[in-house]
Amino acid sequence: MVEKVIPIRIDEGKGLVPSIGTQLITPHGRTQDTRGRVLRDLRISVTDRCNFRCTYCMPKEVFDQNYPYLAHQELLSFEEITRLTSIFSSLGVEKIRLTGGEPLLRKNLEILIEMLAKIHTTDGKPLDLTLTTNGSILRKKAAALKAAGLQRLTVSLDGLNDDVFKKMNDVDFPVEDVLDGIAAAQEVGFANIKVNMVVKKGTNDHEIIAMAKHFKGSGIILRFIEFMDVGSSNGWNMEQVLPSKEVIAQINAVFPLEPIDANYTGEVAQRWRYLDGSGEVGLISSVTQAFCHECTRARISTDGQLYLCLFANEGFDFKSLLRSGSSDLEIANAIMNTWAQRNDHYSEIRGSQTANPTAGSRKVEMSYIGG
């Protein structure tokens, strides 16, 4: 039985108060955290709702019909998200990923994308604007997303066998509709689409080769993600983790692979390409091969809390700054001061007493801050 957990909510406490500081400085992209990591990537959760009930993210036992989702007024508005994104871009952020829950459930999301697409990096380039979706309504939304200025897409898909996939999403949703959504995205011109498969040992690991075969040669990059202990409600245990090295061994035995260099410093996925030139796969190994030392990501929750790690216990309340009359300069300084104090490295200490939250300090749920 999964213990019912309610994530941190604005009406149960506003999180930590960010420090603006007494002497304001000009925003810049050189701020390092205590481990020398700079801020380059921002993930923004636009809704805490999802139409799937994946057992590793939003299990039915917790997220049932009585679950207290955030009220509309608690969410950051599109204008607030755009303002915050512009401030982050002045601090060196180059990549924005919209997440959820399921982000396509946020009404008129294409309007937000159009607003964000107008923001540029400090060197005058457009932001790398991307989105992660379960693909369930991608057929309906693909054209509008592309027209609004979304550059890239990542689709979550945990198997090709319908029975396996329905067991994973736990709402009887057919895999065919997700594949149709991916096809729709390709039809409207999305390139470099990625598909993420969370591998849960004993549940869908027998789908690895089928997934590799299906997407090999398609132009779509398939990435395998180790089952992670995100939040406090997914019943995680190490016995359900299939190490990425075993995933690669399985694929290499059928479709020979070789490792290739990362696209950029801090890329979370280890890249491998097929020797016959028919594409590549990626491995995200947060459990067995921690990459904390290169992590350049921050996360904004659905209600405007800044989280410095996917496995964090608490966030910093930036919605209050947005709604209390703070200037862009003050908010920028608060972000720099918050990042400068960052020391998060959960995946490097997983399993230790330090990494295990107490009953009163649970890890925030992934549906609240995005994956």
TrEMBL record:
Binding site for GTP: 43, 97, 132, 194, 297-299
Keyword Iron assigned: yes
PROSITE patterns to which the protein is assigned, alphabetical: MOAA_NIFB_PQQE, RADICAL_SAM
Keywords: 4Fe-4S, GTP-binding, Iron, Iron-sulfur, Lyase, Metal-binding, Molybdenum cofactor biosynthesis, Nucleotide-binding, S-adenosyl-L-methionine
Note on cofactor: Binds 2 [4Fe-4S] clusters. Binds 1 [4Fe-4S] cluster coordinated with 3 cysteines and an exchangeable S-adenosyl-L-methionine and 1 [4Fe-4S] cluster coordinated with 3 cysteines and the GTP-derived substrate.
The EC number(s) this enzyme carries: 4.1.99.22
Pathway: Cofactor biosynthesis; molybdopterin biosynthesis
Gene3D superfamilies according to UniProt: Aldolase class I (3.20.20.70)
InterPro entries: Aldolase_TIM (IPR013785), Elp3/MiaA/NifB-like_rSAM (IPR006638), MoaA (IPR013483), MoaA-like (IPR040064), MoaA_NifB_PqqE_Fe-S-bd_CS (IPR000385), MoaA_twitch (IPR010505), MoCo_biosynth_MoaA/MoaC (IPR050105), rSAM (IPR007197)
Molecular function (Gene Ontology), one example: GTP binding
SUPFAM superfamilies named among the record's database cross-references: Radical SAM enzymes (SSF102114)
Catalytic activity as recorded in UniProt: GTP + AH2 + S-adenosyl-L-methionine = (8S)-3',8-cyclo-7,8-dihydroguanosine 5'-triphosphate + 5'-deoxyadenosine + L-methionine + A + H(+)
Binding site for [4Fe-4S] cluster 2: 292, 295, 309
Binding site for [4Fe-4S] cluster 1: 50, 54, 57
Subunit text: Monomer and homodimer.
Its biological purpose: Catalyzes the cyclization of GTP to (8S)-3',8-cyclo-7,8-dihydroguanosine 5'-triphosphate.
Protein's name in the database: GTP 3',8-cyclase
Organism: Polynucleobacter asymbioticus
